[in-house]
Write a sequence for this structure.
């Protein structure tokens, strides 16, 4: 099987490269997915966010320490149960680092799983449905596909 994707697990990240242009995450529930789009790569963060005001942003902070002078655009995806307080913590951190951003609702698959993915080569977002442990990538339009 030729897997051209990386999966970002909880409290982790995945970065696109030449052989793996797709990054995705799943099982968001209340967590937050953040895509940091740079000129030559995209990094996806799966941020733990279960309780209002309690959010694990260490990996995002570490990434942001090395972004000075880079042109970065962020796409923030909130899940059905993401708290507004935690979204605002992310926004404050991103604004502090002079990064432009958009906020979107994460895709909800037919199996009721909250997922989101991105293909850096084609500049498209995906909703993901799992089929026997294999991700099926369905292109979505984030400006019109609102699933929450």
């Amino acid at each position: 099987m030729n897997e051209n994707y990386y999966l970002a697990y909880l409290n982790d990240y995945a970065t696109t490269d030449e052989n793996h242009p797709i990054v995705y995450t799943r099982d968001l529930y209340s967590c937050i997915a953040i895509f940091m789009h740079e000129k030559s790569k995209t990094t996806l963060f799966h941020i733990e966010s279960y309780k209002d005001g309690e959010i694990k942003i260490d990996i995002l902070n570490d990434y942001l320490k090395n972004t000075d002078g880079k042109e970065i655009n962020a796409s923030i995806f909130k899940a059905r149960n993401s708290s507004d307080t935690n979204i605002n913590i992310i926004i404050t951190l991103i604004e502090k680092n002079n990064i432009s951003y958009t906020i979107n609702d994460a895709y909800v698959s037919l199996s009721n799983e909250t997922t989101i993915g991105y293909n850096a080569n084609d500049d498209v977002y995906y909703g993901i449905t799992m089929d026997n442990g294999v991700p099926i990538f369905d292109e979505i339009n984030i400006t019109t596909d609102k699933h929450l």
Notes: The two ends are 33 Å apart (CA to CA). The CA atoms of residues 23 and 55 lie 22 Å apart.
